[in-house]
Each structure stands twice: as structure tokens, then as C-alpha cells.
Amino acid sequence: MALITQIPKNSHEEYRVSRNDFQGHDLINIRVFFTSKDGEMLPGKQGVAFKAELLPEFIDALSKAEVA
């Protein structure tokens, strides 16, 4: 897994954007991580993963959302 960035969501959670290979597929993964009771950051169920080849379409959609 290649961690790209971490973006704070709140005092106990953060978004992590990573790029990784899963069963031969190049994926972009955006996942919510949370602080466990022992202070460790763990992945939660919330998130999305998509093929890296679709990244330009996601960037375009997010750019449109920013303008809207």
C-alpha cells in the first residue's frame, strides 16, 4: 500500500487516500480510519475503492462538485 495523504475528519477519525494493488488491480482507496481504544489508527468500514484508470473521471467529478 502506498499512502498518498491523510486528511483529518474530526478529532478521532481521518480520511486516508492510498494506491495499492489488489488481486492484480491497480486501485485508489479512500477510507476512513478511526482511533481505537488503545490509540491505534484502524481502518473502518466507510470508504471507497476504484480502479486507478477511473481517476481522471473522479477528478473531473470532484472539480464539478467544487464549482457547484
Automatic annotation (TrEMBL):
It holds the Pfam family PC4. Coiled coil: none annotated. Gene3D superfamilies: Transcriptional Coactivator Pc4, Chain A. InterPro entries: PC4_C (IPR003173), ssDNA-bd_transcriptional_reg (IPR009044). It comes from the Bacteria. Residues 10-61 form the Transcriptional coactivator p15 (PC4) C-terminal domain. SUPFAM superfamilies: ssDNA-binding transcriptional regulator domain (SSF54447). Transmembrane segments: none annotated. This is Transcriptional coactivator p15 (PC4) C-terminal domain-containing protein. It comes from Ruegeria atlantica. The lineage of its organism: Bacteria, Pseudomonadati, Pseudomonadota, Alphaproteobacteria, Rhodobacterales.
